[in-house]
Amino acid sequence: MPRSCTVCTHPDRKATDGALFRNKTPFRNVSKQFGVTASALFRHKQHSPIAERVRKIAAQLETLPPRKVAYVKGRLEGKSKKQAALDAGFSETMCERAIARHAVVLSLPLNKLNRQWRSP
Questions:
Q1: What's the half-sphere exposure (Cβ side, CA atoms, 13 Å) at 97?
Q2: Which end of the chain is more exposed for a tag (fewer CB within 10 A), N or C?
Q3: Domain extents for the chain?
Q4: 73 Cβ contact list (under 8 Å, min separation 6)
């Protein structure tokens, strides 16, 4: 029987996952902070359910047109909807209409992406 993941069984697993997937903190710093090895963190990041969700979202983003991907990246950087759309190459009229109608034309589940996209 294979040995269980030391990060999965760690008492501070949520905090460890947060440090791994939400920040760009190096493995060695996270390992010192939570008392696990860097190799255990690497293995955990490979099999974690969060990593699987990040891979699925990345695959969805690859199928989008480049302008929509640029829009999503702009939103993740903290830009307003209008500014992200303008920077992505959408016309100002289109941006204003979409925002006025609360259209979902340009939106993705940004709250989920924001948490998962920033994995190192």
A1: 6
A2: N
A3: 1-47, 65-117
A4: none
